[in-house]
Specification:
Elements: E1 2-6, H1 11-20, E2 25-29, H2 39-49, E3 53-56, H3 63-66, H4 70-91, E4 94-100, H5 123-138, E5 141-147, E6 150-151, H6 158-168, E7 171-175, E8 179-180, E9 183-184, H7 185-198, E10 204-207, E11 214-215, H8 216-230, E12 238-242, H9 262-268, H10 275-287
Parallel strand pairs: 1-2, 1-3, 3-4, 4-5, 5-10, 6-9, 7-12
Antiparallel strand pairs: 8-11
The chain binds NADP nicotinamide-adenine-dinucleotide phosphate.
Length: about 290
């Protein structure tokens, strides 16, 4: 089996390189090797490599910067997935793509299911939703996994920011009224590999996050306690609760980012562990 991976240098992309390697020949493309803003280059890469599976882990993920760079973000998050899906369909291959909880506005008082109405609050969310729709309308054999609050040892994420701030500051403010599930790249990458090897017929949009839920505040608290225990930080900073309305950012985020992952579990048996177990395993690995 030949697999073409885009965004291989990202936090998920790096874990995917590890999880996909045993499945066959992996053509790993980081940003330098394949720029998704270059439509001709994307088409040429697919036509030359002729992969059986395309995995798109590349994205414009700078949520706040997207507010002032809508054209660029849309090119990467909506247009490139459309081109990849068209090429996937022409080739008779399969596409695996990733999307986000930010396609929802967060007003639902319960976890979101796949069929819930999308109403993104931000340019990033709109561009990711457009990418989902472009893939659906391409007719390609494709699966889109919506995930949330992604973190891992590689790249930039909330967990690593908290570890850095713990050593730099005595006091930090953390939003306590946005809820979701921090999802470890390792778990996402392993589930992606399992979808390829064990579930060739799964298609459409599915939710896939860690089990359980938390707030950014409680997530930070849990990071600090475990990181201190492991010796990754020297002290726990004083944590102050802040409401998202008092923490203005260029892009609005949903208050409810909880995604119901029952559909993928029902159709494939794939479900991720509780967010705490992923976090503890990731921190333990960083320590060692
Ligand atoms: N991070 C989250 O919390 C989160 C939450 C929900 C869903 N997701 C989704 O999960 C997927 C993986 O995200 P991630 O957290 O791994 O993001 P990430 O670490 O930011 O990785 C994204 C990768 O895409 C690359 N990229 C950006 N523009 C590109 C371009 N024009 N051409 C080729 N590559 C380009 C980046 O390369 P450079 O850095 O070199 O530009 C980076 O390696 C994305 O679809 C994202 O939307 C993420």
């Amino acid at each position: 089996m030949k697999i073409l991976l885009t965004g291989s240098g990202g936090q998920l992309g790096q874990e995917l390189q590890r999880s996909l390697a045993p499945l066959g020949e992996l053509v790993a493309c980081n940003h330098a090797r394949l720029d998704l803003a270059d439509a001709d280059a994307v088409r040429a890469m697919v036509r030359i490599e002729k992969p059986d599976i395309i995995i798109n882990a590349a994205a414009w993920t700078a949520v706040d910067q997207a507010e002032t760079h809508e054209t660029e973000a849309t090119k990467i998050n909506a247009e490139a997935p459309r081109i990849l899906a068209e090429e996937t369909a022409l080739l008779g291959a399969r596409l695996i793509h990733f999307s986000t909880d930010y396609v929802f506005d967060g007003s639902k008082p319960a976890p979101y299911v796949e069929s819930d109405e999308c109403a993104p609050l931000s340019v990033y969310g709109r561009s990711k939703r457009a990418g989902e729709l472009n893939i659906l309308s391409s007719g390609a054999d494709a699966i889109t996994l919506r995930t949330s609050w992604v973190y891992g040892a590689h790249g930039a994420n909330f967990m690593k920011t908290m570890l850095r701030l713990a050593n730099e500051r005595d006091e930090i403010s953390v939003v306590d009224d946005q809820f979701g599930a921090p999802t470890w790249t390792r778990h996402l990458a392993d589930a992606t590999a399992s979808l390829i090897s064990d579930h060739p017929n799964a298609s459409g949009i599915y939710h896939l996050t860690a089990a359980g839920e938390t707030s950014w505040y409680e997530y930070a608290e849990t990071i600090f306690a475990e990181a201190l225990r492991l010796g990754l930080i020297r002290k726990i900073p004083l944590q102050r609760r802040v409401a998202s309305t008092n923490w203005p950012t260029p892009a609005k985020r949903p208050n409810n980012s909880r995604l119901d992952c029952a559909a993928l579990r029902r159709d494939t048996g794939i479900a991720l562990p509780d967010w705490r177990s992923g976090l503890f395993a990731c921190l333990a690995e960083m320590q060692s």
